[in-house]
Amino acid sequence: MARGKSLELQGLAQRAAALHKAGNPAGAKATLAALLRLAPGHWQAINLLGVIALSESRRDQAEAYFLKAIAAAPLEIEPRLNLASSLNGRGQFTEALKHLKDAERLRPASALVQQRLGGLFTRVRDSERAIFHLARARALSPDSSRAIRAHIAAKRLVCDWSDWGADDARLRALALAGERVPPFIMLALDSTGQEQLDCAIRWGAPYVRPSTAHVSPAAPRDRSDGRLRIGYISADFHAHATSYLVVQMMEAHDRARFEVIGLSYGRDDDSPTRQRLAAAFDRFIDIKALSDRDAAQLIADLDLDVLIDLKGYTEGARPEILGYRPAPVQVNYLGFPGTMGVPFIDYVIADALVAPLDFQPYTTERLVHLPDCFQPNDANRVIDPAPVTRAGAGLPPDAFVFCSFNNAYKFGPRMFDIWANLLNAVPGSVLWLLATNDLARANLMREAVARGVAPERLIFAPKLSHSLHLRRLQLADLCLDTLPVAAFTTASDALWAGVPLLTCAGPTPAGRGAVSLLYAMGVPELVAPSLEAYQATAIHLATDPRALRGLRQRIVDNRATSPLFDAVRHTRAIERAYVEMVRRYVAGEAPTPYSVPAESPQES
User: Do the first three CATH levels of 215-370 and 401-564 match, i.e. the same topology?
Assistant: First the structure.
């Protein structure tokens, strides 16, 4: 190829890549078309067309481009990785693995290939292979922040606490140096509010778009009926912890004053929870096949008053959609216990216990305090009536059962030291945990032995349906919370099942979820002021049956009257929050923190 033509092709390729990065897919595609007229087999151009198609949620077309790029350049790995990513997103893990293995054969020393393999095995819950590939990626690229954070996150999922302190320090150092560290990982470190804020701002920066890129309604609606139009957006409108919490709130919204729309970009599992949610909304719209911009435009055309993001920065989130500003007021709520660090989210809904006003400097959203508790709950959730026994659950009949059904990544050597102390202090007691994966089980049993605890005193519960899980939970004597990330849905599950939960107030909202729930439930003495007090309280309750019985009875008695499980009361409070948000927006007032009154005159 003549040097002049080669330079021309190179220039066109660079221009197309720059246009794509700048958010101008039309310009990028026009440039790529010109390039391909000059060089029809240019694999980079074909591959970039696939990347653009994938960003626009045109998976079939994207995968066709990637296959064409592979055929044009069979020794290149980039289109193979892109094809695997698309297939992975579809849930076609076997096909995705095939293309990743092809890439590995071509570039066995590629840290990126190893990381993608580790990510796929993480998704399919194959922890052993995930750890193997992520460790290899980190060894191949020891200075890569992406490889480091992926490996450390995977280690915590399997309770591999080797180099715990060094890993913690390395992640915090990366964040301090300006590297992008996922905010969800930062919450699980012993991080400060300032560190969490700085991390979120860096992570959210790519989602911030200039006002010229924002979408607007095609035609503003007739608002003569006086109803506010509220949208809830999530990937978790299926059998998921968030949906277990919000479903009755959606049903309880006052339809005379509010129109409520669900916007789902997650999977449809056809579960009873999914069906109940779909029926609970006035409209339920599946937007998962739309590109971020198209989804944002659809939402803008709904002409919402308030859009509530129930995902934040949790797995599968699409903050890019909200970055287009499809609604005049946008809110971070429930799914992510931290700030999103972006200017396009106006408020975060919390309460005075989970996020006190003195935490406002560490969140870009303005704090809105609900009067009772930040967390909605479903008082219609079913506890399976089937009889359960300790023998059937693999528990000793007469042992004191400590329980923690939090996710394994929330565990760590500090909490496990305390739990081992409890087992050593209470003869014959056991610790009941969720069976998340075989590696976590083996690692936890090894950690128990290192602390002088026989491994058989750790008992692992298999995954069950939510109603059966609630039923077996009643076999526990005392649930134990974790820090720095505390229980949220896990805590309300325990209280709904009538089981005392012991927590310790953490320094940031991620560690204070159960604090709010326990106060709302009328058992504030289960909130320990320090980990030393947490340990002492646990030993006291385990060795004083009368005190424990009294607490358990109070929890059972309070379920019917506690604001924690009064979905209508909670819904009216959050509706008052929405009304005030809209009032401020219409009046041209900037978002500022405020507390929602316990009751409005119209409701009294």
Answer: yes
Residue 81 is predicted with a pLDDT of: 97
What is the rounded CA–CA span in Å between residue 566 and residue 249?
Answer: 10
CATH classification (class only), 3-207: mainly alpha
Cα separations in angstroms, 186 against 175, 438, 475, 534 = 9, 26, 34, 24
Sign of CA dihedral 416, 419, 421, 424: negative
DSSP characters for 527-586? EESSHHHHHHHHHHHHH-HHHHHHHHHHHHHHTTT-GGG-HHHHHHHHHHHHHHHHHHHH
Q: Tell me the two tokens of residue 5.
A: 């033509």
Write the CA distances from 330 to 22, 150, 346, 581, integer angstroms.
Answer: 24, 30, 6, 9
| pLDDT one-digit tens code per residue, 211-220 | 998 999 998 8
Q: How far is CA 62 from CA 4, 53, 86, 120, in A?
A: 31, 5, 8, 19
Encoded tokens for 564: 């924690």
Cis bond before residue 385 (omega within 30° of 0): no
DSSP E strands: which ranges in 265-312?
Answer: 283-286, 306-309
Residue 503 structure tokens = 């927590």
CB 444 within 8 A of CB 525: no
Task: Tell me if 319 sits within 8 A of 340, measured CB to CB.
Answer: yes
**Distance (Å, rounded) from C-alpha 487 to C-alpha 506?**
11
Q: Strand 527-528 relative to strand 458-461: parallel, antiparallel, unpaired?
A: unpaired
Cα three-residue angle 333-335-339, rounded to 5 degrees: 65
pLDDT for 3: 63
In 3D space, the residue among 369, 339, 324, 302 whose CA is nearest the CA of residue 516 turns out to be 369
Global pTM value: 0.94
| Per-residue tokens: 297 | 């435009």
Tell which residue, 11, 27, 7, 9, has the closest CA to residue 19.
27
Strand partners, 234: 264
In this prediction, residue 600 carries a pLDDT of: 66
The strand pairing partners of 333, in sequence order, are 349
Q: Are 379 and 405 in contact (CB under 8 A)?
A: no
What residues are paired with 528 via a beta bridge? 504
Q: For residue 431, give the amino acid letter.
A: L
Structure tokens at 472: 């077996």
Regions of the chain with pLDDT less than 70? 1-4, 600-604
Helix (H, G, I), strand (E, B) or coil at 252: helix
- Token pair recorded at residue 461: 């519960």
**CA quadruple 266, 301, 55, 135: dihedral positive or negative?**
negative
Produce one character per residue of 258-291: b if its CB has 16 or more CB atoms within 10 Å, e if not: bbbbbbbbbbeeeeebbebbbebbeebbebeebb
CATH class in words for 401-564: alpha beta
- Residue 6 identity (one-letter amino acid): S
What is the enclosing helix (H) or strand (E) of 308? Answer: strand 306-309
Query: Would you tell me the crossing angle of helices 241-252 and 567-586 to the nearest 10 degrees?
Result: 80
Name, in order, each residue with C-beta under 8 angstroms of 150's C-beta and a sequence gap of 6 or more: 115, 118, 119, 134, 137, 138
Is residue 502 within 8 A of residue 538, CB to CB? The reply is yes
215-370: CATH architecture: 3-Layer(aba) Sandwich (3.40)
Q: Which residues contact 314 (CB under 8 A, 6 or more apart)?
A: 184, 335, 336
All structural domains of the chain with their residue ranges: 3-207, 215-370, 401-564
